[in-house]
From TrEMBL:
Example of a GO cellular component annotation carried by this entry: membrane
Entry annotated with the keyword Cell cycle: no
Species, as recorded: Solanum bulbocastanum
Name this polypeptide is given: Cation/H+ exchanger domain-containing protein
Segments traversing the membrane: 42-62, 74-93, 113-130, 142-166, 178-199, 211-230, 250-272, 284-305, 362-383, 395-414, 426-449
Bilayer disposition of the protein: Multi-pass membrane protein
UniProt domain Cation/H(+) antiporter C-terminal: residue ranges: 644-789
Biological process, per Gene Ontology: potassium ion transport; proton transmembrane transport; regulation of pH
Pfam families, per database record: CHX17_2nd (PF23256), CHX17_C (PF23259), Na_H_Exchanger (PF00999)
Length: 793
């Protein structure tokens, strides 16, 4: 049997009457396995196997509950609390020998220790993700809501406590500290909890999400500051030497903060300076940062304050974003947020006993206090939001977001149990209140706020219905520098002129790393992207060159969006909505090299494109760029100076939109436009009469233009089915630089018969999917167009 080294205690000569004896204690850690033991039941007597079994049981139960509860829109927090309640004395703990065998008191120390370590690093990462400068940049709405959400509840809670509870003769004096702690903790608004809720509901990048993040960050910083001051004063009051102890604690705290700021901050900047651009920070520095987290906990705990303030301050001091902040998050986030921090929630749930309750009078008062605090906090957010002209539904949703509770509140409640400020019964009720408030907030926000409705179009925002001489507004999105180069070709072909000016809004999409708050940077306002200046600057230069080339006819505006990939579509749609764009140009999720081989196939980019197609407030074009591919040597000498553009036309809204954009391009004297209409051999095929009229009218305009412009060619191709259509389109790949196609067509269209069955990329439609095939090695680009979808509320 493998055991830890025996510990010995020698008691000689230190106390009167001490004897020279040794005490040995064997701590069983590692097991030789169930088959290496005389009795397999002894397997659980070893600490490490027992701990691993406990983790496995907790993880399996939590994930199983979440698999069921997420279908009714309940957050993971609910599953974690319920898992603890099921494993605790409320349910399975009632089974004889269940707790003694699986969660013995001697083995509880490991779950307790690991959960606290996880929570410490969770708080540290929350501080790393926070950008305190956001507070300074926040608007008046965020400041108003954030400050009043702290000031009004604190004033109300203090009035109720000192005006009623502290004077209530019927309340035992040992219950008064519990009531005081409940009021203090209920007044907290935790930024990490709010950010987690917004991520779960997928509204972080919405206008409401940005307001909630900014307001909660302001509330969190100020409420933590107030709680720190209160804790410092309470140390002195409890010791009955108010002045000396309070001043000593305050000086110690101030010294710790200054030590962290003036040592960790310069070291962090030095590490960032030594890290090559675009590379993660060396793992050695991550290890040292983890050591500093533990040291910060020890220092703050010795100052007499809650241990969580040390990691939080340390996290705030470390610069967020790449390279240091993002590397810390990448290395630690999965382990911390995925397993260790949730372990604290389940551990708290395991201490809940909803069966054995005795002091029902005080427990009723607990629920009265919780309900009162909840009501006051809700009103303190809802009413100021209304006063700041936030729509009533959004104000109600914002209030539910701000009152939500989670791991931060549960940690404070657990500390009060350890400090014996509250008893087990009170803790059980408070944990149940966290569960109910979290579920209520999640459900109500999801019901009240539908972020898709702000993109619903009530007016036409497309190219077809815009005046031919009006300003054309395009939103061009880019993830890489190659995307900008490809978009530049399309913009040049758009040929802006004084009669038909072009306004381009360029959006550089950067994955959010090491931050909790998404950022939208407007480079025209002098804002700078500190995490990717070089990459953004190269893109800016391309658009500046475009604007200079068409001086007076084209204008460009550059933005950088830093967001999680799952929310990038919201930034794209929101910017297109605000800038009244007629079309969004998105880069395709595949990239080719000069030899025609695929070098990038990103599922994240494909998901972003699909989400934009569903929610866009205007038309959308997906650009499949193959300009990098070299032409065969036999054709390189026959290149025409004209930019060859073709439109594949089969009818419908999307084809008409593609043709409308191509008509604008045809004004360029350096562009040759060919419109190829595919007509079915079967003359008896029924068509939508209104669509047929609109198609005929637009094609008539093209034919008339072709009579006056030599660079417009119109031709018709009669086909029997999709196979003949595919042959003709594949032949076009060698003759054109750009082929424009519509995304959606009727399912029963004879010209596409059979092609729909082989559609691997539905977001491109049957024709676009055919032209996006990986085996095509010609330098032909494709623009797949979807006309604006007008939604009816």
């Amino acid at each position: 049997m493998a055991t830890a080294a025996a510990t010995s205690v020698k008691l000689t000569g230190e106390l009167p009457g001490a004897v020279d004896e040794k005490c040995y204690a064997e701590i069983p850690l590692h097991s030789p396995g169930m088959w290496g033991l005389p009795n397999p039941s002894l397997f659980l007597d070893f600490n490490l196997p027992l701990f691993l079994l406990q983790l496995a049981v907790i993880f399996i139960l939590t994930q199983s509950l979440h698999l069921v509860l997420k279908r009714i829109r309940l957050p993971r927090l609910i599953s974690e609390i319920l898992a603890g309640i099921i494993l605790g004395p409320t349910m399975l703990g009632k089974i004889p020998n269940f707790t003694e065998n699986l969660f013995p008191q001697s083995g509880e120390i490991f779950i307790d220790l690991m959960s606290k370590i996880g929570y410490i690093f969770f708080i540290f990462l929350s501080g790393v993700k926070m950008d305190p400068k956001v507070v300074l940049r926040s608007g008046s709405r965020a400041w108003t809501v954030g400050l009043l959400a702290v000031i009004l509840p604190v004033a109300s809670f203090a009035s109720l406590y000192f005006g009623f509870f502290s004077l209530d003769a019927n309340m035992h004096r040992y219950r008064q500290p519990a009531a005081q702690s409940i009021f203090l903790i209920q007044g907290l608004i935790a930024f990490p909890v709010v950010a987690s809720l917004l991520v779960d509901l997928k509204i972080m990048n919405s206008e409401l999400g940005r307001l909630a993040l900014a307001s909660s960050l302001i509330s969190d910083l100020f409420s933590n500051l107030g709680l720190t001051i209160f804790s410092t004063l309470r140390i002195g009051l409890l010791a009955e030497i108010t002045t000396v102890i309070s001043v000593q604690s305050f000086v110690l705290l101030l010294g710790i903060i200054l030590l962290i700021v003036f040592t960790v901050r310069p070291i962090s900047l030095w590490v960032i300076k030594r890290t090559p651009e675009g590379r993660p920070v060396n793992s050695v520095y991550i290890t040292w940062a983890s050591v500093c987290v533990v040291l910060a906990v020890i220092l703050v705990d010795n100052a007499g304050l809650n241990y969580q303030y040390g990691p939080f301050i340390l996290g705030l001091v470390i610069p967020d974003g790449p390279p240091l902040g993002s590397t810390l998050v990448d290395k630690l986030e999965t382990l911390v947020s995925g397993m260790l921090a949730p372990l604290l929630i389940t551990y708290c749930g395991m201490k809940v006993n909803l069966v054995d309750l005795y002091d029902l009078v005080f427990l009723n008062w607990v629920w009265v206090m919780v309900f009162f605090c909840l009501t006051v906090k809700y009103a303190s957010v809802f009413l100021p939001a209304l006063a700041c002209k936030v729509p009533p539904k959004d104000a109600a949703a914002l209030a539910f977001i701000m009152i939500t509770q989670g791991v931060i509140q549960m940690s404070f409640y657990l500390n009060n149990v350890i400090n014996q400020t509250v008893d087990g019964e009170t803790f059980s009720m408070l944990t149940a209140s966290v569960l109910l408030i979290a579920a209520l907030s999640h459900f109500c926000v999801g019901t009240l706020y539908d972020h898709t409705r702000i993109y619903a179009g009530y007016q036409k925002r497309d190219i077809q219905h815009a005046s031919s001489n009006s300003e054309l507004r395009l939103l061009s999105c880019a993830h890489r520098f190659d995307d900008v180069v490809g978009a530049r070709k399309i913009l040049d072909a758009s040929f802006p002129c004084k009669e038909s000016p072009l306004s381009v809004y360029a959006l550089h999409l950067v994955e959010l790393a090491g931050r909790a708050s998404p950022v939208l940077i407007d480079h025209q306002l002098g804002q700078k992207n500190t995490s990717g200046v070089a990459r953004s600057q190269k893109m800016v230069e391309v658009f500046i060159a475009f604007e200079t080339q068409f001086l007076g006819s084209a204008s460009t505006h550059f933005f950088t969006s830093m967001s999680l990939p799952r929310f990038m579509h919201q930034d794209i749609c929101s910017l297109a909505f605000d800038k009244l764009a007629s079309m969004i140009i998105l880069p395709f999720h595949r990239k080719w090299n000069q030899q025609g081989k695929i070098i990038l196939d990103s599922s994240n980019l494909r998901t972003i494109n699909n989400n934009v197609l569903d929610l866009a407030p205007c038309s959308v074009g997906i650009l499949i760029d193959r300009q990098k591919i070299k032409r065969p040597a036999s054709q390189s000498g026959n290149e025409s100076s004209m930019y060859q553009v073709a439109v594949v036309f089969m009818g419908g809204n999307d084809d008409r939109e593609a043709l409308a954009y191509a008509k604008r391009m045809s004004r360029s004297p350096e562009l040759q436009l060919t419109v190829v209409r595919f007509v079915s051999w079967d003359i008896d095929v029924r068509e939508n009469q209104w669509d047929a009229v609109l198609d005929a009218e637009m094609l008539k305009e093209v034919r008339l233009l072709g009579q006056h412009q030599d660079n417009i060619v119109y031709r018709e191709e009669r086909v029997k089915d999709g196979a003949e259509t595919a042959l003709i389109i594949h032949a076009m790949e060698e003759a054109f630089d750009l082929i424009m196609v519509g995304r959606r067509h009727r399912d029963d269209l004879q010209q596409l018969l059979g092609l729909n069955e082989w559609n691997d990329l539905p977001e491109l439609g049957p024709v676009g999917d055919m032209l996006a095939a990986a085996e095509i090695n010609r330098p032909v680009s494709v623009l797949v167009v979807q006309q604006q979808i007008v939604k009816n509320k």
